[in-house]
Records
---
Amino acid sequence: MKYKINFILGIVFLTNVIIAKAQTKLYQLLSPDTKIALNISAGATLTYSVNYNKKQVLLPSKLSVSLGDGKILGVNNKVEKILKRSVEQDIKPQYGMAANYKDVYNEIAIKFKGNYEVIFRVFNNGVAYRFKTALPGRIKVNEEQINYQLTADAEAWIQTTNSFQFSYEEQFFKKKISSLIGKPIASLPFVTESNGIKVAITESDLLDYPGYYLTYAGNNTLKGISPKFILKDTTGGQDNFNKLSLLDADYIAETEGTRDFPWRLMILEQNDKDLLYNNLVYLLASESKIEDTSWIKPGKVSWDWWNANNLTGVDFKSGFNTATYKYFIDFAAENKLEYIMMDEGWSDQFDLLKVNDGSVVTSGTTALSGTLDMPYLFNYAKQKGVGIILWCVWHTLDRQMIEALDQFQKWGVKGVKVDFMNRDDQTVVRFYERLAKEAAKRKMIIDFHAAYKPTGLERTYPNILNFEAVQGLEWNKFSDVDILTQATILPFTRMLAGPMDYTPGGLYNSNLLDYRKSFFRPMTLGTRCNQLAMFTMYYAPFEMLADAPTAYQKEPEILAYLAAMPNTWDETIPLEGKIGDHAVIARRKGSTWHIAGLNNWTGKNVKIKFDFLDAGDYQATIFSDGINANRIGSDYKKTTQKIDKASSLELQMANGGGFAIKLEKIK
């Protein structure tokens, strides 16, 4: 690891100026490239402001933490000492969007009288701060004051909710920040603009603490708001899969008095395109707490639920039965897919020790159609080198965690897909970490669905491979909403937080006029190439192939492309993009590049320059929208040609279209 840290005590450099005036102390911290200036004022209140290229992006904004004993951290501040350091290091993630992340920042830690400090970091593309306390015993946190005073009532890409209990699958809409007066509130990441600079607000290292949302406080100011600690809840919601609050406390957290609070992060970029690749949430998260990570295996998954276990051309009745999952296992093995999923319906949803014998009925799921011989299936999967992932209702797994995971381990389960949390209060955040620890003890991976946005937990517990927190392809089963328009918003918004389980790969492709929702034979909005592009565009270390094995087997070109597709990367380069319009990205695995373009409902041409390539020739395999793709979504063409770094390529994306390119080095 390349590692360089410079520690400087006290008052250092010209970038750290202290002025004694009415007991207020002022500090300035610059980014390593000096483009970002962070200004801190510590006196009666604690505020910070931010400039980018000498343009004000954030006006002085207050920060504090109010405790249950009446103490407020961040008011009447008396600085005891400061510690400033510069860090330049290479972080090699267990898996990621690149083999190496550059972690370069300047930091100032300001220690105040009262046994707390605030740490600020300035990167070349963002600013973050966190509180750190050294208080005795346990404490209650009534409120954390988080404010962002922008330079104007700017437009933002906003995902809203009227409640702290929701699935994090709402759409992003472009609205003024002032639209957040009262309710609804906005979830994170929150992308807006201030003085011409792109600003994305989110958080990292969320442990034993609730997440937060944004509301409008007037005067161009966004204010953070967190769910209260839940004292009493009850089962409810969809099929009783949720836990609904009956009684909230008057505080947001009860926690250890000596701790690090979550990082509050502002990502700053000059262009939309640059939002396509950002790893600050990961870099700010705590390092791995799992010592041996050699068993953790990202991969692709043959999924059952989206296609409703519908197999064609087979000599058995498909559904929840041994023959169906044996077919899924064979399909995965033949195409070198690492996993299959046994989703909702394999068990009694409220007793994970009871395999479904046909007596369990849930709305909208496939009939059992026989019996499930779990020991046989796990033994067969092991022989074929395929892992099986089991779906669980979160509160059932929470209640039965030890005994259920022990049973899963005996069977040979490789991981769990945990669903329907629909919350990010402190209790649920604790559940994530508790499950990550227990699953790691048994060498199991995790995929969280109906989950809150990622906050870097996949670094701390790398057995957590993916998070949903997105209006993904499943919505085509039960909704008429236009999810394709979101496809060109998500790479710039939701993807800033971390891995995203969108579950692409549907082959029944349609335009807006032909589309209809169907639970048992779902369609996708947009073209075939739009679906293919998502496998490169959306970062997913645990990647579902949504359609049925027999659907892919009828499309051998598509199957061969997807089966060989990586889902972790050695390098990522954003090429072009505009939020809500289109996005083009390049990702490398070894010497092979994958390039993808996603489009909205307006057709357009894009020109790709390959100057990022190494010297030498590449064989390009190009999947692009067919001439009739605007009418027939499944129409595509596959072409091949030689490419080198001096080449350029112009492609036309259909309405709701896209493209996918594979570049293989010619030796």
---
Amino acid sequence: MGWFVRRVAQSLIMLWVVVSLVFLSIHLVPGDPAELLLSQDGGSPDPLMVNMLREQLGLNRPLAEQYVLNLKGILNGDLGSSMVDGSSVSAEVMRRLPRTLELIAAAGLLSLLIGIPAGVLSALRPKGRFSRGAALVAGTAQSVPVFVLGTLLVILFAQVLGWLPAGGFAPFSRDPGRHLTLLILPAATIAIGLSAIVFRITRASMMDVLPLDFIRTARAKGVPHRRVVIRHALRNALMPVITVFALQLGGLLAGTVLVETVFNWPGLSAMLVAGVNARDYPVVTGVIVVVSAFYIGLNLLVDIIYGITDPRVRK
């Protein structure tokens, strides 16, 4: 129990540090946010309007007071209001977050379906043609930038073959078929690189497990080959795969910016890009805080799973 409390406390401290750094980095950059917002259409803004906007946004208060109010708002689930249209940042984040999570979940599932079987087959015959070919494909997939890969998929499947739409979004409640069709290309773009990582980790982990004594014992007892591979070898080789996969998913929440931009998918990353372009600091802060909380929470979950399955971690 003490180990669990310590890990939760460490995660909360990390989240507090992230919130503090985001607040300071935004408020200590040169320029007045109110003046920058009012001068986006060109020209010098009216000083009276600048003061009114600063009063409305609470920017005229001392920095320490702004920090405390910002921290209280986050603890209460209030990420503030957009400086551009006054809408609730929390509401917009909750509206867009499921879209990004859906994209990541689809990509993650696809990468597991490709990466784990390929890694297992490659580990069983590490010098075979399949293993060499899969390693070459995985290396190529990891080396191609995601925006290049997305563009190539659009050219091939949308423009040349005409099988899939180039991008966009349709609510699932209105048109489930089109929604799933629009999900294929962006999910595949993410899954290709992620499946290469899953393949490499699965292959390496399986090759470490297969020569162990308990595998040889199972084979000596006449256990069928498929059962030895799946129930004994793969089961013991999955922990590193799960760990790396979970950490990669956490990073993908922040790394879908280019994919959502290329495919015009209105998720959390697209919201972040729009906030940066409009210099909408509450939006930028809110998205970064949510992404950081998700990533830290995912790390905590992985640590808890490790602690449950391996008592040595709790020491």
---
Amino acid sequence: QHIESARVKLTNPEVTVHLEVEDDRLLLIKGRYEGIGGFPIGTQEDVLSLISGGFDSGVSSYMLMRRGCRVHYCFFNLGGAAHEIGVRQVAHYLWNRFGSSHRVRFVAINFEPVVGEILEKIDDGQMGVILKRMMVRAASKVAERYGVQA
């Protein structure tokens, strides 16, 4: 229908309507939400993040999510239940804020017996290296069990 009084202002419109054409459908876009950027989660391989509750492990998990990885969490409990609760809260925040479209795992491993054995059998200068090596070994077993590649 032709209406003589109808005009469209392309330079400064009063209303902007966002449409998307998909195959034989026309979609009206009502709102747009900013994501975290990067690849969509799940487009890259799953990873196992060794999360300690410190700043760096949370940031590295976030950066992997931006790369499209679904991040599962592995926590080595050295400090009791209160520490684990705090780390779970950090992992839950990351998942809820940036990755809740996918299910992930949180695996907590009681590492106090391992630390006790290291304290008994290893020289002071090598304790940190040995502890980290044992954590990587245990994390490799967790990753293998759940089919996580990295």
---
Amino acid sequence: MLRTALGPLLLARLEDPGVAEVMLNPDGAVWIDRFDVGLRPADLSLSPADGERIIRLVAHHVGVEVHAGRPRLAAELPGGGERFEGLLPPLV
């Protein structure tokens, strides 16, 4: 389910060894920080609902609850072990 929620374009960036970080802004814009060229827009966007769904799926996979009283999630993605941090309202 998590791989489906991330989608093929986002997964490709996560699996790229030249990518240091993938960021989703509150406006839905995705940014890629590459080792060779630095931070650039990814020409990719996600809806707020898709972003929240990804955060909740990661939380479920690592056995953590996220909600308004605990809106920050820090975890490693299941499978690849990539560092993940997600913020829900009221933080964003």
